[in-house]
Design goal:
4 helices; alpha+beta; five-stranded antiparallel beta sheet; globular
């Protein structure tokens, strides 16, 4: 493990954190423009309804945001199925999607029961990234179990001794070594923020590969590492490298800073965020 170096500052101003509500029902939101209401809001035509692809797009955006705000690698969720939804679009082509969907644990065992049902409202600002999200989920992982799993992963990360520079996860055969699973899960947690920030009404992202991992020694015992992740961008099919710096320890705020290599304005290509897994408060922008 190498001596800690000061992490490079991420371009652009930091955004404020939004804390997590630690209750059986989870209400999460992010600051942004208000959803369209009143006469300017127009329903999709009754004979067609909203496209299923739009509903899945909204569900993925909600889950990226949910995963990041939870700040727990052991509580990561992925989309199982969209059950129902509706959408409204206004004169500015801004779209509000209300939907209900089910989720699965990111590392679910065979035969494991789905974690539960979520309802969400997602507001896409035309083709701009970083949709506003308000999501409520039932049947979260039990708090004590989540804390135990997070601490187990934390100890595994602290016990890593082999240099991780140049390591590709998964390898060329699509395999993830069990000893590197904690690195992958933490990277997925941090990348959830990046993928949510970059999602638009027409573009979504999948974490394809993790490379260039470097862990730093810290004075406070936090997990502190830099990594490069390759994001698969749908529907352009481009592979986008992003450099991400992540600081995490169980029960404490998650910090993510990143920079993605793409032909965008600097303010659209990089960001910084801090999220808290404690200090419960309700916040809604809808």
């Amino acid at each position: 493990m190498q001596p800690r170096r000061p992490p490079p500052p991420a371009p652009g101003p930091p955004r404020p954190a939004a804390p997590l509500l630690a209750l059986p029902l989870l209400l999460l939101a992010v600051q942004g423009a208000a959803a369209p209401t009143g006469p300017e809001a127009a329903e999709w035509r009754p004979d067609t309804g909203p496209p299923h692809g739009l509903l899945r797009q909204a569900a993925r955006a909600a889950l990226h945001f949910l995963n990041f705000r939870a700040g727990s690698p052991s509580a990561l969720r992925v989309l199982a199925a969209v059950q129902e939804g509706r959408a409204r679009i206004n004169a500015k082509k801004e779209c509000t999607v209300d939907l209900v969907f089910t989720t699965e644990h990111y590392n679910s065992e065979e035969g494991e029961e789905r974690l539960g049902k979520c309802s969400a409202r997602v507001f896409f600002r035309n083709q701009k990234p970083r949709p506003a999200v308000n999501v409520t989920c039932a049947r979260l992982m039990e708090k004590t179990k989540r804390q135990q799993e997070d601490y187990r992963l934390y100890k595994q990360m602290k016990q890593l001794r082999n240099p991780l520079d140049g390591v590709s996860i998964p390898d060329s055969h699509g395999h993830i070594d069990p000893s590197l699973r904690p690195v992958w899960e933490l990277a997925f947690l941090g990348s959830s923020y990046v993928m949510w920030e970059k999602t638009t009404r027409f573009l979504h992202y999948y974490m394809a590969q993790l490379s260039g991992v470097k862990q730093w020694e810290t004075n406070d015992g936090a997990i502190d590492f830099d990594y490069t992740v390759l994001l698969h961008e749908f529907s352009t099919q481009e592979i986008i490298p992003c450099r991400i710096h992540l600081v995490w320890s169980p029960g404490k705020p998650l910090t993510v800073k990143y920079h993605c290599q793409e032909l965008l304005a600097p303010e659209d290509a990089s960001g910084t965020e801090e999220g808290s897994a404690v200090a419960p408060t309700e916040l809604s922008n809808f």
